[in-house]
Specification:
Neuraminidase, five-stranded antiparallel sheet, globular, mainly beta, about 5% helix, single chain
Length: about 425
């Protein structure tokens, strides 16, 4: 059963429409999904075809009563209904975190690979990346660990880009230099107090093959923010990665780096934004990027000068250069941004906005080099429990998913479509 969002949404749209008469505001419709109560931290992904999308999530393993086991599950949605949920794996040792969550990637609306995090002995924040490929018959391979380092430190915040059905380009935050740096449970919430970059978190990459082999592992950046999400997108023969950098002066602005698939080399990392946000700690609020042909859009959060804002910037040359950033919100943002393209090349950009009493997911559409006015997508708990909303293209529209934190906590999903005249 589908239902249109509340009258608050209608009031918000009426106000927003006064800002832009040229673009008709979209319609937001709540849709049910097959996630069970207690499910959380969804990841939405669209294949190259774009007529359906894939949703991945974590949920309690009800098939193992009495055990603290978590299941990793996915299903596809084509605008009319969901496929039967499919189990990827389950374990009592999954590292489950509100900001560092599993992901699924595919081609032509078919899953190619998924990743998750697996705890290892040595500390509360010691975990490794596991990556598995899916066969055409639906079987998942044994897990592959993409990183060379096996130390009891953090390895996560992964982004994957499928190259073809047998290869996935992967980037991640790698803590191999942080061994013995006191980066345990007691220091994680307020870490990075010192600007000694000799033991800083690094950003690394590798090409992972279905047969378990790996290409050359490369360091993208030797000092990055410890726990902000990474993101990567492909435009032609280039992969553009975005992440939060870290300088010796504790400036944590957003950087980009471009990987050439022909030469198998990274270009020099460059600042995507120069807000100059000085913060001696990780804000846990990473950037996102998406591409459609030569058009690439990046979005991110900054609280420089004590002004919390979400921003976006557009590239029309495959990520080589970007236009000046522009804000998405009215100044009441807490970030947790997302961006995705529809089949037709329209982009949806989302963020969480908050005042003193309520929080909500908001969006803006970008099309024909024009950014539409903000619209309400849905109410959300602004705490960590709700995780990070994620979006994927669905034909000419979009699907957005996040964790609902009511009495029967589960996954909230809405479909965003163009209004008909």
């Amino acid at each position: 059963m589908q239902k249109t969002l509340s009258s608050l949404f209608i009031v918000f749209l009426m106000a927003a429409c006064t800002e832009s008469d040229e673009q008709t505001q979209p319609v937001v419709t709540e849709v049910p999904n097959p996630a069970t109560p207690g499910a959380r931290y969804p990841f939405a992904s669209a294949g190259a075809g774009g007529d359906s999308m894939m949703l991945l999530w974590l949920e309690p393993d009800d098939g193992n009563p009495g055990a603290d086991s978590t299941a990793l599950v996915w299903a596809s949605y084509d605008g009319n209904g969901w496929s039967a949920p499919e189990l990827i794996g389950k374990s009592e040792k999954f590292f489950v975190n509100w900001a560092d969550f599993p992901a699924l990637t595919g081609i032509d609306e078919t899953p190619v690979a998924a990743h998750w995090l697996q705890e290892v002995p040595g500390g509360s924040y010691a975990y490794h990346v596991n990556l598995a490929f899916r066969s055409q018959s639906g079987a998942w391979s044994d897990p592959i660990t993409p990183h060379e380092d096996r130390s009891a430190t953090e390895h996560g915040f992964v982004s994957m880009v499928p190259i073809d059905g047998d290869r996935v380009f992967t980037i991640w935050l790698d803590g191999y230099r942080m061994q013995g740096a006191g980066h345990g449970e007691s220091s994680h919430e307020g870490h990075d107090g010192q600007a000694d970059l000799s033991n800083a978190m690094t950003l690394r990459s590798v090409m992972v093959h279905r047969d378990g082999s790996r290409g050359e592992e490369l360091e993208v950046d030797s000092a990055v923010c410890d726990c902000c999400q990474t993101s990567a997108a492909r435009s032609g023969d280039r992969i553009i990665a975005v992440y939060r950098n870290r300088t010796s002066g504790e400036i944590r602005d957003i950087y980009r780096a471009v990987y050439d698939l022909d030469t198998s080399q990274w270009g020099e990392p460059l600042a995507l934004s120069n807000e100059g946000w000085e913060i001696a700690g990780c804000p846990v609020n990473g950037p996102q990027i998406a591409a459609s042909g030569d058009t690439v859009i990046a979005t991110w959060f900054s609280a420089a000068n004590d002004e919390p804002r979400s921003f976006m910037a557009v590239s029309h040359d495959g990520g080589l250069t970007f236009a000046e950033p522009e804000p998405l919100d009215d100044g009441e943002s807490i970030g947790r941004v997302a961006v995705t393209f529809s089949r037709e090349g329209t982009a949806l950009l989302t963020w969480i906005g908050a005042d003193q009493e309520t929080s909500a997911v908001y969006g803006r559409l970008w099309r024909d080099s024009s950014l539409g006015s903000p619209f309400l997508i849905g109410q959300i708990d602004g705490s960590r429990a709700s995780g990070f909303p994620r979006a994927a293209g669905l034909g000419a529209g979009f699907l957005v998913a996040w964790t609902a934190t009511d009495a029967e906590s589960a996954i909230q999903t809405v479909v965003i479509s163009q209004a008909t005249e």
